[in-house]
Amino acid sequence: MFRWCNVCQTFIGQIEPLEDFSLTHGICQECKDKVMKSHFEYEDTLQPIKDFFAKVQKLSFAGETINKRKFLKEAKSLNIKASDLLAGILQPLLYEIGRLYSLDQMDIITEHKFSQFVTELITDIRSEFLDQSSYPENARVDVILSCANGNNHAFGVTFLELCLREAGVSVEAIYPGVPADQLADYVQFMNPKVLGVSMSMREQLPEIKYVAKLLSGQETTNPYFLVGGFGVTKEMPAIDGVHFFNGNIRELVGFIKKKTLKAA
Ligand code: B12
Question: How many independent structural domains does the chain possess?
Answer without folding.
Answer: 2
